[in-house]
């Protein structure tokens, strides 16, 4: 088998060409701020109360966001330095024979989360429409699912680079920032009316420790680890990719989690979407956030297409993207997605140790050395690398054993740390 020709015919396993390295720091920051904003993030933020006090919740949000976004930034730097996608990095660390397993698992979770995003957008669209006095008929959820699926298909047919640099950075980002500012102003005002001091000093009721709460916050940035390389590889340099990714996602994660806590403090019994709709100007603000949600579904679909293309390169990334979009629409129409969310979260847990190992193997290598090795990396990645494979599988077992070992320590951080240190200690020949 000619490994060089195989890599060159496979867009997902080939290093990014210099002509495709166009993202500056502000492009990375705009993309990851936009991806970090979402209704699901706000809903998870509301889960922190009333188990924690507001002070504990905000501390967990700040620490978890900075740490989780830092992991994204670190992975972005590695991807930009090497020019390799997520699928290629998995192949490099675990060997091509074995890497197909995590790549396929990643594809499955991306299809699941892409479908879930369509459901979130559909449900929010119908809620907005009914709040405005329309969409009362039972067929509207199907209509909105098809409509949002059509939007994703339209975007996936175009250029990812142009989408990030023009639509997201210049249009979507300013609109979503304005909507977040408006909602924050409204709910801060509501908190002041109710008595800020009494809300701020409200004690937690227990049931969730601080470390498990930070685990919940870190879950959002970690869920993007399998995707970040697919975009960061198009950066101009590793440092700007790291800083932009870290800054953009950390700010968005803290803002959305914090807004979820603020909504839960002021309207503890209300559904989050309903609470946002009842805010002054909430209909417009929620609509803008909903529009921004499109890039989350697009991100899942594009990276899913990259993963599928790496396994079956005879189909282009665009063709795979259109097929996955159709699949997500069909699943959104027939599956009770809210009931299978725990399965998606469980599936996501396999990527915590997976990327802990990848970071341990590739972090702190000189950038020039990684770039010099990139053209022939496929020649060294044909066979399964069993030490790293074994470490990943042991990491999955550790992740699911942590609640039994220490219920207050969380799962993500200990597993990441153990896998990272163990991977650093493996011989460099693996």
Distance between the termini: 22 Å
Overall strand count? 0
Oligomer: single chain
| CA radius of gyration | 21 Å
Number of helices, counting only DSSP H or I runs of 4 residues or more: 21
Ranges where pLDDT stays below 50 over 5 or more residues in a row are 1-8
Large-scale geometry: globular
Any overview of this molecule?
The chain is built from 21 helices and no strands. It is mainly α and 430 residues long. It is globular, with a radius of gyration of 21 Å.
Short description:
This protein has helices spanning 3-8, 25-36, 39-46, 54-82, 86-94, 96-131, 140-156, 160-194, 196-200, 210-223, 225-232, 238-266, 272-278, 282-292, 294-311, 317-334, 341-348, 351-362, 367-373, 386-405, 412-425.
Spell out the blueprint of helices and strands:
Elements lengths: L2 H6 L16 H12 L2 H8 L7 H29 L3 H9 L1 H36 L8 H17 L3 H35 L1 H5 L9 H14 L1 H8 L5 H29 L5 H7 L3 H11 L1 H18 L5 H18 L6 H8 L2 H12 L4 H7 L12 H20 L6 H14 L5
């Amino acid at each position: 088998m000619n490994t060089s020709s195989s890599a060159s015919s496979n867009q997902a396993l080939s290093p990014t060409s210099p002509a495709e390295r166009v993202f500056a720091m502000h492009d990375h920051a705009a993309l990851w701020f936009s991806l970090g904003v979402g209704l699901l993030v706000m809903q998870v933020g509301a889960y922190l109360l009333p188990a924690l006090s507001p002070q504990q919740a905000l501390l967990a949000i700040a620490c978890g966001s900075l740490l989780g976004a830092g992991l994204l930034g670190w992975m972005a730097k590695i991807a930009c330095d090497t020019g390799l996608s997520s699928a290629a990095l998995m192949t490099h660390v675990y060997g091509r024979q074995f890497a197909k397993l995590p790549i396929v698992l990643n594809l499955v979770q991306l299809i699941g989360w892409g479908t879930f995003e369509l459901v979130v957008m559909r449900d929010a669209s119908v809620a907005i429409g009914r709040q405005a006095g329309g969409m009362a008929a039972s067929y509207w959820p199907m209509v909105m699912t098809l409509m949002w699926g059509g939007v994703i298909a339209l975007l996936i047919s175009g250029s990812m680079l142009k989408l990030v640099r023009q639509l997201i950075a210049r249009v979507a980002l300013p609109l979503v920032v304005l909507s977040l500012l408006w909602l924050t102003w409204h709910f801060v005002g509501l908190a002041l009316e109710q008595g800020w001091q009494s809300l701020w000093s409200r004690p937690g009721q227990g049931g969730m420790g601080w470390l498990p709460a930070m685990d919940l916050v870190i879950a959002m940035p970690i869920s993007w680890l399998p995707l970040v390389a697919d975009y960061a590889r198009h950066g101009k340099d590793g440092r700007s990719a790291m800083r932009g990714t870290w800054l953009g996602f950390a700010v968005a994660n803290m803002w959305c989690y914090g807004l979820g806590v603020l909504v839960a403090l002021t309207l503890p019994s209300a559904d989050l979407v309903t609470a946002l709709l009842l805010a002054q100007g909430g209909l417009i603000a929620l609509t803008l956030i909903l529009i921004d949600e499109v890039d989350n579904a697009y991100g899942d679909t594009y990276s899913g297409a990259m993963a599928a293309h790496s396994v079956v390169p005879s189909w282009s990334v665009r063709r795979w993207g259109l097929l996955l979009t159709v699949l997500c629409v069909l699943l959104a129409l027939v599956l009770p997605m809210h009931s299978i969310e725990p399965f998606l979260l469980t599936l996501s847990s396999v990527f915590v140790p997976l990327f802990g190992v990848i970071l341990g193997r590739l972090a702190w290598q000189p950038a020039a050395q990684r770039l010099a090795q990139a053209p022939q990396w496929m020649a060294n990645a044909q066979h399964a690398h069993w030490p790293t494979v074994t470490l990943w599988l042991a990491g999955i077992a550790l992740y699911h054993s942590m609640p039994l070992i220490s219920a207050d320590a969380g799962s993500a951080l200990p597993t990441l740390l153990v896998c990272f240190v163990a991977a650093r200690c493996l011989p460099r020949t693996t």
